[in-house]
């Protein structure tokens, strides 16, 4: 009783209020679902770009390492040729000196495993001497490219010719040659060193480039000197119309890119670098589809999880809206559901900081931690060190023993790393795949190297069987990098330097720790 007009007014407006609440709830649900989809798409795209950038950095580091190896191998042979030319031009070749010259060439060849042979030809291309003990007879090499080049060009520098098959042994070789002159400066012949292509292929084949990756050593004239995977038909192929020569090299002597191959049409993530002092280019590339394979798998998993969450949210929203239409207590239930969702998000955030397989910190926690510690090191003017640890031949381990054994191997290595990280302020994390990272605040690169060696030795001592490894057991390679108080390096610089040192350790034979330069 009392005020029936006011009561009627409230009852009359309740359906409008309920409809407004329903519309608001529907709008909110759509906004949440759309936001989740946008966030997932954005994170997936960023993850894709990170995968590609990470491999570009890896290819750049690998190209630099292989360029240094090629320069060193060729330089050793060229140094012998320089001394040989000087001897020939100053002392000449008397008939009585040939035996001595033969012995000298044989001795010098035996000092360098990459050298197939050392040869001397006169101005007509006739064999004068060689290191292989082959009969000189009437052999003549005046038709060879290197002989014609030196005959027609007076410059005295080294010349690297196209890969050829040796007439003395039938093996594929690379030629490095120098011109020999008479006292009056006229052409007197050629001094030649031949290098086994297999010397380069053995190293290239030892590098995991996936099923469709390539490593090329290319001459400045765009012809292929050696290519992995090796195919005789590819030797000497001309790449002058490839993106490497039309786009990349004109812009910079080294770099990275994603391009499509002229030879097989495969799109690859590439790194390239000119060999210092010689007209050669090292070109390394991973199949882009293989690079993104793990990303696609991760993205599909994320999409599945998000679909489940969206389905869950949809069912929950329908239920809430139905309850809103039926009962006045929907507001209380909505608040309760919201609290559950917040608690679920808090739990997910906690789980998102830990790697489920190893129990170590995951990549997200590592990124947050190293950014924080870099800032702390700058403020407090203290040292900071980073270890990048990678399990050697892990793909071969998985192929031999299966992925369950591979998971168990990663757990054991994680436990070993944890045992050697004693200080509470240190962090060990699973960086990705078979790669781990250790952040050591307040530690310089010397202390970090000692920790790296302890971990490496502990893994070796653990004796985890690995029949596909040269050691017969599981080993790790470690890249070490230190951030000094005066350094202006950023987080990516520190990670990149440690990763580069890790690739050097890999390329140098594995089972070792290398400090970044």
TrEMBL record:
This is diguanylate cyclase. It comes from Pseudomonas moorei. It is found in: Cell inner membrane. SMART domains: GGDEF. Its EC number is 2.7.7.65. SUPFAM superfamilies: Nucleotide cyclase (SSF55073), Sensory domain-like (SSF103190). Gene3D superfamilies: 3.30.70.270, PAS domain. It comes from the Bacteria. The keyword Membrane applies. GO terms for molecular function: diguanylate cyclase activity. Pfam families: dCache_1_like, GGDEF. It catalyses: 2 GTP = 3',3'-c-di-GMP + 2 diphosphate. Keywords: Membrane, Transmembrane, Transmembrane helix. Its cofactor is Mg(2+). GO terms for cellular component: plasma membrane. The chain crosses the membrane at residues 20-42, 300-321. It is an enzyme of class 2 (transferase). InterPro entries: Diguanylate_Cyclase, GGDEF_dom, His-kinase-like_sensor, Nucleotide_cyclase, Rev_trsase/Diguanyl_cyclase, Sensor-like_sf. Residues 382-517 form the GGDEF domain. GO terms for biological process: cell adhesion involved in single-species biofilm formation; negative regulation of bacterial-type flagellum-dependent cell motility.
